[in-house]
Specification:
The chain is built from twelve helices and ten strands. The protein is of the alpha/beta class and 372 residues long. A five-stranded mixed sheet has the order 3-2-1-4-7. Helix 4 packs across helix 8 and helix 4 packs across helix 10. It is found in: Membrane. GO terms for molecular function: glycosyltransferase activity. Its main location: membrane.
């Protein structure tokens, strides 16, 4: 009786499972690309942003290193003539904009008569055509790069402003980041006095020696709604091990940083490697609201206020933009309300205002803004 033996598999039958697995894998990739936007929707009017080009990254790193070493260097280019023993401590006002500075006439009144106590730096999107600001003050337009909302490019733009301000004038001890839609809520004298004391007092020069005590005013929040979604926006475990969820923080994009914290931000490299990574969930991805609060919370939480000095109204936000104040809303009463804060300082600045608010704001400025 002939023995029964299993037939040897033909080459075609042994290859078929591999073909099936390959086709299944390709089909999965196709379905992922087709349906992923439904699970991770793009924000309105936003496309997926490419990573920061390596040449831009290297340029910025060189700039940040230059600024970080400025205090120790004896031969750094562009040292300001203001680096003298008689210089007053100054506030650097950093405008981050992609449109005209329509409120320049209001800021002109704010700065008037205090030219020895401040500097202005502007990072203007180079792909946007801007009209010259309508003011007579000196403003430094720094070398700028393209920025995108909800991307790490805004983090580097803010750091570019900090670096240029530090290199330009060693008397800059505080750095206020502002947008083109920000307005002041107090006089310059009031804001300067709150941060650095009376400029006419001989003791004002002590601010240079007391920089290690200067506090930064930056919003640092935990336990907020959707915090976890923001943490995992790049992937479930991407932020580990450097940043665990319990150390992740969020806050306002706009801040007032002391010089010591500005230098810390420019020297930092480890967390930046995480925050510059592309996001999967763009709806929850706002590096400009995550990087600075997380870093400063991890490095010096007691040296920060944990609240911002820029008032923003999120009560009726649209597409993740805050409320925009319009012409009919502008009044002395509104500005008094915007000053009110639960913290130890009232709000210094407010955003965001529509361009047509300029004229009524100029009319009530002396009464409602500059009279403290």
């Amino acid at each position: 009786m002939a023995s029964l033996a299993s037939p040897s598999p033909s080459p075609s039958s042994s290859a078929s499972p591999s073909i099936i697995y390959c086709l299944t894998f390709l089909l999965s990739l196709f379905l992922l690309g087709l349906f992923a936007p439904q699970f991770f929707p793009l924000r309105k009017n936003q496309e997926r942003q490419p990573p920061i080009p390596i040449n831009e990254e290297l340029d910025d790193l060189h700039l940040f290193e230059l600024a970080s070493n400025i205090e120790l260097s004896h031969a750094v280019p562009k040292i300001s003539h203001l680096r003298t023993a008689n210089s007053h401590p100054k506030i650097a006002f950093l405008f981050l904009t992609n449109s005209d500075l329509v409120f320049a006439p209001l800021w002109q009144r704010f700065f008037l008569g205090n030219e020895h106590l401040f500097n202005v730096y502007i990072h203007a999107d180079p792909f946007t055509k801007l009209s010259p600001p309508d003011w007579s003050i000196k403003a430094n337009f720094i070398p700028a790069k393209k920025t995108h909302r909800g991307s790490p490019t805004l983090v580097n733009a803010a750091r570019r402003l900090l670096a240029n301000a530090i290199i330009d004038d060693s008397s800059n001890l505080y750095f206020a980041l502002l947008s083109q839609r920000c307005i002041p809520l107090h006089s310059f004298k009031s804001i300067y006095g709150s941060l650095l004391g009376n400029p006419n007092s001989p003791s004002s020069y002590k601010a240079f020696g007391n920089q290690h005590r200067h506090k930064s005013y930056i919003e640092i929040l935990s336990g907020e709604p959707h915090l976890f979604n923001r943490y995992v926006a790049r992937g479930p475990r991407v932020m580990l091990p450097e940043i665990s969820f319990d150390r992740f923080r969020i806050g306002s994009q706009f801040f007032v940083l002391a010089k010591r914290h500005s230098l810390l931000v420019l020297k930092e490299r480890m967390l930046w490697r995480k925050f510059k990574l592309p996001c999967i969930d763009l709806y929850s991805c706002y590096p400009e609201e995550h990087y600075f609060p997380t870093l400063l919370s991890m490095e010096d939480p007691k040296g920060c206020s944990h609240y911002t000095l820029t008032r923003v109204n999120w009560s009726d936000s649209i597409d993740c933009h805050p409320h925009t104040y319009r012409l009919p809303e502008v009044s002395p009463k509104l500005l008094r309300q915007l000053r009110t804060s639960n913290s130890s300082h009232s709000y210094f600045f407010a955003r965001k205002f529509a361009p047509d608010c300029l004229k009524p704001l100029l009319k009530i400025a002396e009464e409602a803004i500059f009279r403290d």
